[in-house]
């Protein structure tokens, strides 16, 4: 039976065949991204999660998840969290000061463009080149270490500093954490309207009071979300840490690499469980970042 249209109802407007063809062709433009995401992000993630709940024979098990609570593995997670938190907080503080200086401060306008360009490059500079750069700069025979000793007679390593340590790796991570903070927080600082500060000053507020009662409450979701993003960014870094410290610093990515390679306990499924734990931690951090970012954008609009 054919449907009876109600009196006064408008007939459906047909979509032209040319427009339908254009919409279908538009999907071809994003197909490389979809294929890349499926092959190198979604499928490996599903494979790791499935492997975390399987034994060597392929049977379902929770033993791999239970083994994550071993003292050595918990210690690796803890030191990774501390390094990620330290680099995220320091990177956020230093990056925020630099971003505020180029957006709200009195620096010349021409400084902003090269600084943002450098931040875009430096935020993606990691791995073996970054580790080599810091070894050549702050290693035992590095440029800065030799300069301090030959010019000022100050032995950096004799006073407790060690590049292959907690603070050494944290300082190395700051090389890409600070630029990433600058790139993310600069648009939020640009969103602070001049009228808000003028209104606060007219009402008798001082500069610190404006930041404490107006600017920071508006920027707080973006700041907290960016700190979480920096935390996730450093928590999953392995190439820089492995090239710099080798196995002398047992952070989770290095322990995971050793388990997957099978040269420690010969248990790759425990490595999958380690990766699953990292996915959970970074996933929660990124989810909170996205939520905080959305809240911040509502205020800045």
TrEMBL record:
What range(s) does the ABC transmembrane type-1 domain occupy? 77-289
A Pfam family cross-referenced in the UniProt record is: BPD_transp_1
Point out the coiled-coil segments of this chain.
Answer: none
Q: Which UniProt keywords apply?
A: Cell membrane, Membrane, Transmembrane, Transmembrane helix, Transport
Q: Which residues form the signal peptide?
A: none
Main location as per UniProt: membrane
**Family per similarity comment:** Belongs to the binding-protein-dependent transport system permease family. CysTW subfamily.
Write the protein's name: Putative spermidine/putrescine transport system permease protein
Identify the species of origin.
Phyllobacterium trifolii
């Amino acid at each position: 039976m054919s449907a009876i249209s109600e009196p006064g109802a408008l007939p459906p407007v047909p979509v032209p065949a040319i427009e339908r063809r254009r919409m279908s062709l538009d999907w071809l433009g994003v197909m490389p991204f979809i294929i890349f995401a499926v092959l190198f992000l979604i499928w490996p993630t599903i494979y790791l999660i499935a492997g975390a709940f399987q034994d060597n024979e392929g049977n379902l098990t929770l033993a791999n998840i239970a083994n994550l609570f071993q003292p050595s593995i918990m210690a690796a997670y803890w030191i990774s969290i501390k390094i990620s938190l330290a680099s995220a907080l320091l990177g956020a503080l230093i990056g925020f000061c630099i971003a505020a200086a180029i957006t709200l401060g009195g620096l010349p306008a021409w400084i902003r463009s090269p600084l943002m360009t450098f931040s875009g490059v430096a935020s993606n500079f990691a791995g073996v080149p970054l580790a080599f750069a810091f070894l050549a700069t702050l290693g035992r025979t590095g440029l800065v270490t030799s300069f301090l000793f030959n010019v000022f007679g100050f032995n950096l390593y004799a006073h407790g500093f060690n590049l292959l340590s907690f603070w050494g790796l944290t300082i190395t991570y700051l090389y890409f954490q600070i630029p990433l903070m600058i790139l993310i927080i600069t648009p939020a600082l640009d969103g602070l309207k001049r009228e808000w500060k003028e209104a606060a000053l007219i009402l008798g507020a001082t500069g610190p009071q404006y930041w404490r009662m107006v600017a920071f409450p508006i920027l707080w979701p973006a700041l907290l979300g960016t700190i979480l993003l920096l935390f996730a960014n450093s928590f999953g870094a392995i190439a820089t840490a492995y090239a710099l410290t080798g196995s002398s610093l047992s952070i989770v990515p290095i322990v995971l690499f050793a388990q997957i390679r099978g040269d420690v306990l010969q248990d790759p499924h425990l490595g999958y469980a380690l990766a699953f734990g990292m996915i959970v931690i970074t996933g929660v951090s990124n989810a909170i970042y996205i939520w905080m970012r959305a809240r911040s954008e509502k205020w800045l609009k």
